[in-house]
């Protein structure tokens, strides 16, 4: 059980406070409701590049990291297709430093040309390191546009192309800040060895002077129903053939999400899972195979990816995956199997609550959906699922005409 | 008017509380170290075994033995073990490191009577079935093939090989090693290493009384004909300092630079950690500031000191654009030398001291992290006073002492330099 209090400042900033006195530390987490899906198709990778620029100095504070390290704190951030999330952990006695730093960069950035120039290079190197200079590293750059024809999920957070990052201008940076970085588009979580009254005082002091800005109204092209199977083959310098199979699935808070999540666990959570037992152990086709989903807010991706053993025929491997999916559609899952994945969900949640930062991030994410208390109640959506629900969901997911498959072949 | 220019007042970290491990002995003398903390009703149990002498002709035998332990016992098949562990929402990890082979169980307290006996099965009745062994070897071989396509892995392999030669610490697994693993060897190694007198149990989480009774019941009467055997690591470093592996198509060069080094047992270790922090041990380090934040050559660069039981090493690691490989090497050398020639400013040193104290405090998040802190001292023959002296050293070290340490331990020309990519 994660307890919390909530208040909203006049400028629209939502603040959630989670007291946890088992640690001497505090965390300050700010989620901005902007991700790669909000980018202009000609300027992809911008939300992520912008995240880097948030560390390049703010209007009153030339260096972000240094004063934080000076009080024993650490910070980092990540960008996804849906959100951008920033966090600080520091000794709770020095909490005010976090308020000072975070409020100043919400107020305004320094917009330094030097910082833009350097971070463009850094992000280009990140692009190379993670996506280009790795075996199979480019797979999602290729796959996303095959899966999404309309929705901006068709590009990865790093961007479509290095040139989009190389061409970023300081005016674009300023416009992006104005559009997305204001109190109305943010959710702040303060957790750890702190108390509600102090947090209220600090939030009023540091954040309420920030102008409310404009509320960003999102209106994204939604992805139409897929009616034709997509199959693509590519060759690259990799040691073994791989297959990637994607089905569109419900968004994070939509009906059917929890069922789909459990289906991925039945297929691939742990060594007792179906794909591992059947296609790695009993009938060895794959050296590794996984099923997972992206947990996206809009229509998401359910993914099955496997690396084939040498000499295994690709068509046969594909057929074996389909056999597993068909089995989920025609036969009810075993009761033990269902209990197993529910138990695993429950214990994963319990283990997750050992980490203050994880709790803070989850609170922010659930609050984005309008109710942070989902952190405690979302599990009910999982526990009430029965075998018939799973079968029904499998039937709605795994249709031939809704599949996108990439054969990634070794040259 | 709110002053946004000057930072708010802040406090120094004075007291750091460690939750100390409580020692129990089972009837057969297996030590059980207990760290009791936390709100969630769950525990981690680690069964830790010291590795034994390593053989060049059977280089991957110890790690394969470790991975195979959960692949079948007299009573349970590999599939049965997996489904029991998964059914109770538990997690199992077999972990092989330079010094130790471990089996770790993460379980909710309420399911321990069901989950813990499976560990006993693995420790006393593993049979290393041939079919599972073949599958494991094939799959690990495939994984290694993928790994060998990553320049950062190639650099790491060449680096440890240069430092530690053909030894447990230096050997890099080869594809053909997977063709020469024999079931009988694994069984023999299993008996020689996984036995009570070579076992340490570390339990962390919310500890209920019944757990200790259960551990005694399951493991207290476990016997073996084998006795504890100390292991040695003898290594010969390479004569060659520069190891360059050209990759004509590379977009980035992976760089590793460093030398064999002192480990945690050495009185200079903490001082050297402070020195390393300045060079490349945190986001605000000199290497990060220069090579990422000023020049934009890389997504990241860092340095560290790895403490192994029989040795240690110091390393600098990064991946940079191929067009700036040479410039990066020049800048790294410059930064190492600056710490030898110039006294560190008080301002930078104070920041590092505060940062390290905050990090230490933050690294004690939960029972598991307190267990990590315990293992870090226990297996090096140190006591909790190590942390007292750590804090004292961090708080009191002077620029002069850091400069002396840099001169005593760092000589760039003697560093091993591995570059995989282009230059």
Description:
The complex is a heterodimer of chains A (411) and B (423). By secondary structure, chain A is of the alpha+beta class. In chain A, 42% of the residues lie in helices and 19% in strands. Chain A has helices spanning 46-53, 65-70, 95-107, 113-132, 139-147, 162-166, 170-180, 196-207, 257-268, 274-282, 314-330, 335-352, 356-368, 374-383, 387-397; strands at residues 5-8, 14-19, 25-32, 74-79, 84-91, 186-192, 230-236, 242-249, 286-293, 300-308, 403-410. In chain A, the strands form 2 sheets. In chain A, strands 1-2-6-3-5-4 form a 6-stranded mixed β-sheet, sandwiched between helices. Chain A has a 5-stranded mixed β-sheet with strand order 7-11-8-10-9, sandwiched between helices. The mean pLDDT of chain A is 96. With 423 residues, chain B is of the alpha+beta class. Helices cover 42% and strands 19% of the residues of chain B. In chain B, the strands form 2 sheets. Chain B has a 6-stranded mixed β-sheet with strand order 1-2-6-3-5-4, sandwiched between helices. In chain B, strands 7-11-8-10-9 form a 5-stranded mixed β-sheet, with helices on both faces. The radius of gyration of chain B is 24 Å and the shape is globular. The model of chain B has no long low-confidence stretch (mean pLDDT 96). Chains A and B meet through helix 2, strand 5, helix 3, helix 4 and helix 10 of A and helix 2, strand 5, helix 4, helix 9 and strand 10 of B.
Task: Tell me briefly what this model is.
The complex is a heterodimer of chains A (411) and B (423). Chain A is α+β, with helices and mostly antiparallel strands.
What pair of chains forms the biggest interface?
A: A-B, 83 and 77 residues
Q: What's the arrangement of strands in the largest beta sheet of chain B? A: 1-2-6-3-5-4
* Low-confidence regions of chain A: none
What is the C-alpha radius of gyration of chain B, as a whole number of Å?
A: 24 Å
How many extended strands of chain A?
Answer: 11
Morphology of chain A:
globular
For the terminal residues of chain A, how far apart are their CA atoms? 52 Å
Radius of gyration of chain A: 23 Å
């Amino acid at each position: 059980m994660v307890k919390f209090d909530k208040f909203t400042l006049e400028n629209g900033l939502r603040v959630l406070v989670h007291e946890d006195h088992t640690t001497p530390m505090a965390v300050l987490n700010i989620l901005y409701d902007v991700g790669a899906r909000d980018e202009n198709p000609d300027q992809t990778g911008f939300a992520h590049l912008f995240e880097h620029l948030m560390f390049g100095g703010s209007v009153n504070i030339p260096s972000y990291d240094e004063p934080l390290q000076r009080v024993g704190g650490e910070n980092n951030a990540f960008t996804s297709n849906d959100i951008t999330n920033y966090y600080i952990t520091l000794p709770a006695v020095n909490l005010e430093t976090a308020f000072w730093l975070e409020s100043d960069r919400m107020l305004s950035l320094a917009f330094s040309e030097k910082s833009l120039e350097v971070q463009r290079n850094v992000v280009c190197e990140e692009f190379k390191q993670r996506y280009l200079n790795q075996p199979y590293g480019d797979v999602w750059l290729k796959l996303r546009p095959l899966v999404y024809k309309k929705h901006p999920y068709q590009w990865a957070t790093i961007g479509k192309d290095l040139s989009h990052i190389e061409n970023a201008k300081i005016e674009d940076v300023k416009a992006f800040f104005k559009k997305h970085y204001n109190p109305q588009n943010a959710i702040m979580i303060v957790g750890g060895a702190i108390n509600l009254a102090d947090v209220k005082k600090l939030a009023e002091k540091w954040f309420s002077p920030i102008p409310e800005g404009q509320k960003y109204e999102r209106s994204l092209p939604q992805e139409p129903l897929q009616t034709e199977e997509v199959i693509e083959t590519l060759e690259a310098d990799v040691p073994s053939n791989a297959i990637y199979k994607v089905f569109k699935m419900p968004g994070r808070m939509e009906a059917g999400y929890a069922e789909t999540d459990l289906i991925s666990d039945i297929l691939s959570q742990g060594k007792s899972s179906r794909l591992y037992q059947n296609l790695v152990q009993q009938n060895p086709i794959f050296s590794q195979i996984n099923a997972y989903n992206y947990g996206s807010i809009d229509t998401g991706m359910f993914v099955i990816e496997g690396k084939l053993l040498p000499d295994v025929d690709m068509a046969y491997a594909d057929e074996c995956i389909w056999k597993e999916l068909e089995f989920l559609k025609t036969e009810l899952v075993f009761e033990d199997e269902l209990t197993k994945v529910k138990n695993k969900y429950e214990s994963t949640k319990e283990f997750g609550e050992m980490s203050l930062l994880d709790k803070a991030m989850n609170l922010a994410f659930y609050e984005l959906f309008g109710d942070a208390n989902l952190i405690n109640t979302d599990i009910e959506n999982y526990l009430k699922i029965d075998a018939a629900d799973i079968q029904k969901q499998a039937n709605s997911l795994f249709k031939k005409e809704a599949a996108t498959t990439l054969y990634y072949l070794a040259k | 008017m709110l002053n946004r220019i000057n930072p708010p007042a802040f406090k120094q970290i004075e007291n750091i509380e460690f939750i100390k491990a409580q020692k129990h002995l089972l009837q057969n003398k297996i030590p059980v170290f207990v760290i009791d903390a936390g709100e969630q009703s769950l525990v981690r149990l680690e069964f830790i075994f010291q590795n034994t002498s390593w053989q060049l002709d059977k280089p991957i035998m110890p790690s394969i033995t470790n991975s195979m332990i959960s692949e079948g016992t007299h009573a349970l098949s590999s599939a049965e073990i997996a489904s029991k562990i998964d059914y109770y929402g538990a997690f199992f990890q077999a972990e092989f490191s330079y010094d130790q082979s471990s089996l770790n169980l993460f379980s909710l307290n309420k399911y321990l009577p069901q989950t813990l006996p499976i560990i006993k099965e693995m420790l006393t009745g593993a049979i290393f079935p041939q079919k599972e062994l073949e599958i494991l070897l094939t799959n690990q071989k495939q994984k290694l093939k993928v790994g060998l396509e990553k320049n950062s892995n190639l650099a790491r392999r060449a680096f440890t090989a240069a430092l530690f030669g053909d030894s447990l610490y230096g050997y890099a697994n080869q594809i053909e090693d997977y063709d020469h693993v024999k079931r009988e060897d694994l069984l023999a190694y299993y008996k020689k290493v996984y036995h009570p007198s070579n076992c340490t149990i570390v339990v962390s989480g919310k500890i209920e009384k019944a757990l200790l009774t259960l551990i005694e019941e399951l493991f207290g009467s476990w016997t073996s004909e084998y006795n504890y055997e100390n292991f040695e690591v003898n290594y010969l470093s390479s004569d060659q300092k520069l190891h360059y592996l050209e990759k004509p198509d590379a977009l980035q060069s992976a760089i590793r630079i460093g030398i064999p080094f002192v480990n945690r047992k050495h009185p200079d270790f903490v001082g050297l950690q402070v020195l390393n922090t300045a060079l490349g041990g945190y986001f605000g380090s000199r290497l990060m500031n220069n090579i990422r934040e000023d020049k934009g050559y890389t997504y990241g660069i860092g340095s560290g000191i790895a403490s192994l039981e029989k040795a240690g090493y110091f390393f600098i690691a990064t991946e940079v654009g191929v067009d700036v490989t040479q410039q990066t090497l020049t800048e790294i050398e410059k930064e190492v030398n600056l710490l030898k020639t110039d006294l560190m400013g008080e301002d930078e040193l104070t920041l590092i001291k505060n940062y390290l104290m905050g990090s230490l405090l933050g690294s004690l998040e939960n029972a598991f992290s307190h267990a990590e802190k315990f293992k870090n001292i226990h297996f090096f023959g140190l006591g909790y006073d190590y942390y007292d002296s750590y804090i004292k050293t961090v708080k009191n070290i002077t620029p002069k002492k850091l400069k002396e340490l840099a001169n005593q331990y760092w000589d760039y020309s003697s560093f091993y330099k591995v570059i995989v990519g282009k230059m």
